[in-house]
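quick one before i forget lol
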Amino acid sequence: MKHLCTFALILLTFSLAANSVTAAKPLNYPEVMFILDCSGSMWGKVGRETKMDAAKKVLHQVLPSLPDEVRVGLTAYGLNRKGDCSDIEILIPPGSRHRKALLAKADAISPKGMTPIADSISKVTGLLKGKENETTIILISDGKETCNKRPCEAVGKLKESGIKFILDVVGFDVNPEEKAQLECLAEAGGGKYFSADSTGDLLSALETVKKAVVQKVETVKAKTVSKKAATLFGKLHITMPPESTKCLATIKIIRAADDKVVQSIKHPPADSVHPLLKGKYKIVAGYANSNFQPDSEALLDELEIKGGETTELSFGALAISIADELKKIPADSIYITNEKNPAFHFRNRANGNNFYFFKTKPVPPGLYSLALTYGTFTWHMDKEPIVLAKDIKVTAGKVSAIAINTGIRIKKPSQAKIKAWELIPVKGKQPLLKIEGWSNDYPVYVPYAVFPGIYDISVYIEGMNGAVPIGQGIEINKGEFV
């Protein structure tokens, strides 16, 4: 095995990791560390100059052209003794601004020793422990490792240790066997491999590295500027099941400080993002009503938008189905209420057209009940709405089903005329329903949806005084139509 004198460059690149410009943390611009490793092979020539001279020449060209924000360092191995794998020396610690001193140190090096690539990388990365920023290591070698039998495995373990670095490798005038190992090192370190067979190739490779460093400097600057702007603005991301959007006419975003509507979103889609100044807001939904009546509004949420952050607001939905026998119920209004948060509730009115009654409705996650009222001819109109479903769980992004499939209808008798009838819960004191006819017996004989239970039924017959019981203890089970 030939003795190698390898010139290695380790480029330490730290990406922006500051959480906030206002926190007064220093900006983490990229850093560059050069590592020179010496052996007799570095006295070999590429063109008219030795590889050692070529490396120093390229170093003199690349280092001064790095952006001023970039700090530098220098490490060398194999520079003091022959045959000593521990001959690794940090000449300029990482993070230095002394570029002239670095070049002077590099110029004074004379190749002598072994090529402990893996141990050199280990010693350098040891200086990086605890760093939040990613380190890009670029190794330039004219041969393979001479001290560690498993250098790729060693680099892989460093990569897995939590130290943030990437290893790029330049093979400088290497044979196929040496190239294979150097490519392996680059892969183990999560980086790229470059080939260089001349001084010009070496310069080209380092210029490519420099461009990456420059780009990272610009990224830090750009993120610094955008972060200053971002601290004033955040985003609100609203999502809901697509099938629930039809009955949602508007979403209003209201500034809590002065109740000003800052955004009014008509016919909102299932997925939308809204930029907002940081602050507290109320989100109000407007559920559509038929025949051009005003929307039924409900408070969806109260939340805070933080600068530079996206706040998620995700709704589920209630899908309401009604049995065929009950589609002609004379419902006047339906009520949707969050059982755990009664502040969220709304009422859909028929207004002579129940088009929106049984459409799927977007609602915040929670437990819900559905109730309704019938027309002005019903006794209970000034009382509580009739609950038809309760404890319906709604999950964000999911559709929960409510089935209106339990009901009753009074059959028209052939002899007597029923003026009114009432449905009384067995355990209740007041009628749940008292239906009075007013136009050709309407709505005495139409169907009515009710909650499952046990009921007594009485009718009022024309020409007779008082109520006539026609059924006692009638059990109406869920899903039954009596």
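fyi The longest strand covers residues 296-305.
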